[in-house]
Write a structure and sequence with these properties.
Blueprint (H helix, E strand, L loop, with lengths): L4 E2 L4 E2 L5 E3 L4 E2 L1 H10 L5 E3 L11 H4 L10 H12 L2 E3 H13 L1 H21 L6 H10 L9 H4 L7 H8 L1 H13 L3 H8 L17 H15 L11 H13 L5 H11 L37
Helix pairs in contact: 1-9, 3-5, 4-5, 5-6, 5-11, 5-13, 6-10, 9-10, 10-11, 11-12, 11-13, 12-13
Bound molecules: fe (ii) ion.
Length: 300
């Protein structure tokens, strides 16, 4: 079982403040404890922070034109972004990521826009959309703590590097717990690679539907963006991959149906969608990626 790890170096926030010392065990209990102890920090709205102009980016990318058709949909997504309120230190962290690792920043923005769009497929005026949007924007923050060479990797990883990559949900969840306190972003960070129990880390129970929405949106965002080991899938090609994961029980069927429903323009009831084995989309011709496998057990 891989459900905890030992920090191999100090975990610092973006101002250089110590969040956890090297050697700290990051586990579900430690993350909950960090959230309980987190000081209350004033929150700043997205429109008063450094990312205000970035909200339009997912709409400008033709890869997502089927998802964001119509000013009503785009306004609903914009409003969800604008409703995000975070401590200033997290806006600083996101702005630093935009400078240091632009592809992670694009990933966060696209995951947020797609998550909100999927939620709109389930409910026309969803409650808690600001928290869902914040959680989606922050879900992959742990990736910023990987060595830069692992962000650029183009081939399979050796076992040490695979453990480092597989550590990012726990690192991100701990960091967010310490900076935000209890928040859906902490759960999203820890659970977004769970893959119905076939990913990492091991969870005590399946995450809620809104966290599954973020996981599926994150996978879709990753597939539709270029990576060093492949060109991007188009939106339908990415949906084909996710439909195969549903059949292999690596993705939640009802959640992927919300994405299919949004991609098809939002008509009808998403629950009636059926995944066949025929494929409609396009994928890259060269693809050197191998999924990071879940380590079989925790190193501590
Ligand atoms: Fe991730």
């Amino acid at each position: 079982m891989f459900d905890r790890l030992n920090l191999t170096e100090d975990l610092l926030d973006c101002r250089g403040g110590l969040v956890a010392r090297r050697g700290t065990v990051l586990s579900a209990e430690a993350i909950a404890e960090a959230a309980r102890k987190a000081p209350s920090r004033p929150r700043v709205a997205l429109e008063d922070g450094p990312l205000v102009d970035d909200v339009e980016l997912p709409f400008a990318d033709r890869a997502y034109r089927h998802l964001f058709q119509g000013e009503g949909i785009r306004d609903a997504v914009r409003n969800a972004f604008r409703a995000i309120r975070l401590p200033e230190i997290l806006w600083e962290k996101l702005a630093a990521t935009r400078r240091a690792a632009p592809h992670l920043h694009v990933h966060a923005l696209v995951t947020t826009a797609v998550s909100v769009r999927m939620l709109l497929s389930a409910v026309s005026s969803p409650r808690g959309v600001a928290d869902l949007a914040a959680a989606a924007l922050l879900h992959d923050l742990g990736m910023c703590h990987l060595p830069p060479r692992l962000l650029r990797h183009s081939e399979g990883l050796d076992s040490d590097d695979a453990v480092r990559v597989a550590s990012h949900p726990l690192v991100g969840a701990f960091l967010l717990a310490a900076l935000l306190g209890p928040h859906p972003a902490v759960v999203a960070a820890r659970a977004h690679h769970w893959r119905c129990g076939q990913g990492y880390p091991t969870l005590e129970k399946a995450p809620s539907r809104s966290i599954e929405v973020i996981s599926v949106a994150s996978a879709f965002a990753a597939l539709t963006q270029p990576r060093p080991f492949r060109a991007p899938y188009d939106a339908r090609g990415a949906l084909d991959v996710l439909a195969r994961e549903v059949i292999a029980q690596q993705a939640d069927a009802n959640t992927v149906k919300l994405l299919a429903h949004a991609l098809r323009g939002g008509g009808g009831d998403p629950r009636t969608i059926r995944f066949g084995r025929e494929r409609e989309g396009h994928g890259p011709e060269v693809h050197r990626y191998v999924h990071v496998s879940a380590p079989s057990r925790s190193p501590v």
